[in-house]
Write a structure and sequence with these properties.
By secondary structure, the chain is of the alpha/beta class. Among the domains are: 38 residues; 196 residues, Nucleotidyltransferase, domain 5. It has a 6-stranded mixed β-sheet with strand order 10-7-2-3-4-11, sandwiched between helices. The protein has a 3-stranded mixed β-sheet with strand order 1-12-13. The radius of gyration is 24 Å and the shape is globular. About 1% of the residues have low confidence.
């Protein structure tokens, strides 16, 4: 009996080693599998930039009118800069939707949202940046914020946000409209509540059988809905529609099983461009789904009553009250500013 017990005791280390080896092998295989999938994502953002001497301004088709003040860009007084706020427990990812026409290397960004993942508070937030905001663009003349992306891609867009709002952008994820449609088709579409005016507008675009209430949207319809601009309060409601679509997609993806997700990424990842590493993506996704957020807080910059519509360089733009909006965005992202590091 004593010898049997001794024999068993001698075998235990071997059993533990075997179990650990299997576990490590499984983790290694899973890690390799994840890396192989993530390598399908493009990291080759077009590097062509617009030289400062070749910068341009997209003027409005309509004539200037008296309903909005005409401003001289040289008369604008921008607040002084300061330290860029960041925190090791908070990750800010710029989500970029771009409208690239055939033959174009880069277009202006059609939608810009900051996805904030707070590991400390286990919260996820999404904040739209309205594309007609008139801001300082490093190395260029002041212009709409979406011009920064057209002139210098992700890096210049991030630098523009950091210069004006003093918040750190940690990475970027971009998808064009073809990819957008395929994303929503692959996840089986989303359900969105629409109002009567939105339904009427979409029917005029050729989408039949729509009425006020909950509508199941495939990729084509979701894209058309998110791009509606001349219904309701112009770009304000447009950015809200974009957030509605993003939040609905997030909830839908959360409900998918691993086999469905595995099949989905093979189709979707080639349509995505990012400057994040594979490890950063894994960390980001892990934290987002670890929190199990039932509700993602959504916001918009500029705030209501914290901007002025004006004609500048024949463009109808939104001139933000930068101190107010800077403080608001910092509060959205960091909460108590003393927590920023």
């Amino acid at each position: 009996m004593g010898e049997d017990k001794k024999g068993k005791r001698k075998k235990w280390p071997i059993v533990v080693i075997v179990i650990l080896a299997v576990l490590i092998g499984g983790v290694s295989a899973a890690w390799s599998f994840a890396q192989s999938k993530l390598n399908k994502i493009s990291r080759n953002e077009t590097k062509e930039t617009v030289k400062p001497e070749d910068e341009y301004f997209e003027t409005n088709e309509e004539e200037e009118d008296d309903s909005h003040e005409t401003m001289n860009p040289d008369d604008l007084k921008w607040p002084e800069g300061g330290d860029i706020m960041e925190n090791k427990d908070i990750m800010n990812i710029m989500l970029i939707g771009q409208d690239k026409r055939p033959g174009e290397n880069r277009a202006r960004s059609d939608s810009m949202m900051i996805l904030t993942v707070n590991k400390r508070d286990q919260k996820v937030k999404i904040t739209s940046l309205m594309r007609d905001m008139y801001l300082q663009i490093p190395g260029y003349s002041d212009n709409r914020i979406n011009a920064s992306y057209a002139f210098g891609g992700m890096k210049l867009l991030d630098a523009t946000v950091e210069k004006n709002f003093l918040v750190k952008i940690d990475g970027n994820v971009e998808v064009d409209f073809d990819g957008f449609q395929k994303v929503f088709d692959k996840i089986g579409g989303v359900d969105i509540d629409i109002n009567a005016k939105e339904a009427s507008h979409l029917k005029e675009q050729g989408f039949t059988g729509l009425s006020e209430g909950k509508v199941h949207m495939n990729g084509e319809l979701a894209l058309a809905y998110s791009r509606i601009r001349k219904v309701g309060n112009n770009d304000f409601e447009r950015t809200q529609r974009q957030r509605n679509v993003m939040l609905s997609a997030f909830q839908k993806v959360k409900s998918l099983g691993l086999p469905e997700l595995t099949k989905m990424v093979d189709t979707l990842f080639p349509y995505i461009t990012t400057d994040l590493t594979n490890n950063e993506i894994i960390s980001l996704v892990y934290n987002v789904f670890r929190f199990h957020p039932d509700k993602i807080e959504d916001n918009r910059i500029p705030l209501d009553n914290a901007y002025e519509s004006a004609w500048i360089r024949k463009m109808l733009v939104m001139v933000p009250d930068l101190p107010k909006n800077r403080e608001a965005l910092q509060t959205i992202i960091f909460g108590d500013s003393s927590k920023a590091e």
